[in-house]
Design goal:
3 helices, mainly alpha, single chain, 28% helix
Length: 111
């Protein structure tokens, strides 16, 4: 028996049953061989809307969506890390200022 007859019997190599031949096209390389047999673009780009979509509803806004008069939205251009450090410093200074007695200076005491 030759190699072809062994593959037909299912006893060649892997040891476990039937072998299913994979469709092999020598022209296909790389990812293209994995894409064969998948639906084509035409199946997803149909111009007619299917009737089984559950009746898509369009949202119609009934209230005024204009911003309040005089509202100006500005973007803070300071880096978020720098802004965080500045806020922490400001919070710690406010905390320190609240815990000092009126006669104390900002610098530490020398004893």
């Amino acid at each position: 028996k030759g190699e072809n007859s062994m593959a037909a019997e299912g006893s060649g190599g892997g040891g476990g049953g039937r072998k299913t031949p994979l469709p092999h096209n020598p022209r296909e390389r790389g990812a293209a061989k994995f894409l064969t047999g998948l639906p084509s673009r035409g199946n997803f780009s149909s111009s007619s809307i299917s009737s089984n979509l559950g009746g898509l509803r369009v949202y119609v806004c009934e209230h005024d969506t204009n911003p309040p008069e005089g509202q100006v939205i500005e973007t803070d251009t300071t880096n978020i890390l720098i802004r965080h450090l500045q806020l922490k410093k400001k919070d710690s200074e406010a905390k320190d200022a609240g815990s000092r007695t009126p006669g104390e200076s900002g610098k530490g005491k020398r004893v």
